[in-house]
């Protein structure tokens, strides 16, 4: 997506385009979204998009000559009293500002948006006829909400579906974990990018066969599967659904970056801004060792 010599929009113009796509008012109350650093009057010709505002991504933005870095995860999710360069987060801000690069965050507002994190993940794993897993007020006439739920493009087994997920997402040390019978048939699914075990009640209410999300913890996952098995036995049902497909947090949110890059360019005057999706994997895990039988 290359910009021509057309007049560059200002950072304020780019922020307005981003907030048209991901209104800050649709973020969760605890979230911290919007412009973190940068001069609204500064021109913007290059925008780098990434999941995390970590040091390697900042270096990539600076090396490429980006005028703006857009990330999914906030740099400052909790209040701080200093951005001095003596702290690792303060140094990020100083490096960006010295290079003339701003920082903007679209987090839970991007999760809920059309063509946001949830839609990108749902598209990748093949969910059709979908709706938000947890719908939000659509006062602006746009359907928004956390997660997506719908039908798979075609019937599958749990194992084949999990393999499709693994092949579609960026490779990570964790890979893909599965809870359930790999030969069980699945035809409906729910997805939530990022940490999703707080939404188990909504997933159960949606009565889907499989749930794709990240960061699943032992106790919530164990209790969900135990309850599913108990209720399947009680009802004489053939399968203890929902089955679980657990992916890396970074991998579940990375597909949205391409949508955001495309939609940002489409929302600005043609040929004025070049976008790039970061090539750095920001999953913090670097290796996975298989268990050795004792």
Strand content: 15-25%
What about the largest sheet? 6 strands, mixed
SS summary, helix count:
10
Query: Main sheet: which strands, in order across?
Result: 5-6-8-9-10-7
Low-confidence stretches: none
Number of structural domains: 2
For the CA atoms, what is the radius of gyration?
Answer: 20 Å
Percent helix = 25-40%
- Which structural class do you get from the secondary structure elements? alpha/beta
Number of strands: 11
Using the alpha-carbon principal axes, give the shape: globular
InterPro entries: DUF34/NIF3, DUF34/NIF3_sf
Region (Disordered): 275-294
Protein name: GTP cyclohydrolase 1 type 2 homolog
Family: Belongs to the GTP cyclohydrolase I type 2/NIF3 family.
Q: How would you describe what is shown here?
A:
The chain folds into 2 domains: 11-107 and 254-276, NIF3 (NGG1p interacting factor 3)-like (Udp-n-acetylmuramoylalanyl-d-glutamate--2,6- Diaminopimelate Ligase, Chain: A, domain 1, 3-Layer(aba) Sandwich), CATH 3.40.1390.30; 111-251, Udp-n-acetylmuramoylalanyl-d-glutamate--2,6- Diaminopimelate Ligase, Chain: A, domain 1 (3-Layer(aba) Sandwich). It has a 6-stranded mixed β-sheet with strand order 5-6-8-9-10-7. Strands 1-4-3-2-11 form a 5-stranded mixed β-sheet, with helices on both faces. It is globular and about 65 Å long. With 294 residues, the protein is an alpha/beta fold. The chain contains 10 helices and 11 strands. The model has no long low-confidence stretch (mean pLDDT 94). The chain has helices at 11-21, 55-64, 88-98, 108-112, 117-125, 158-168, 200-206, 218-235, 249-253, 256-266, and strands at 34-37, 46-50, 68-71, 102-105, 127-135, 145-157, 177-179, 185-195, 210-214, 243-247, 274-277.
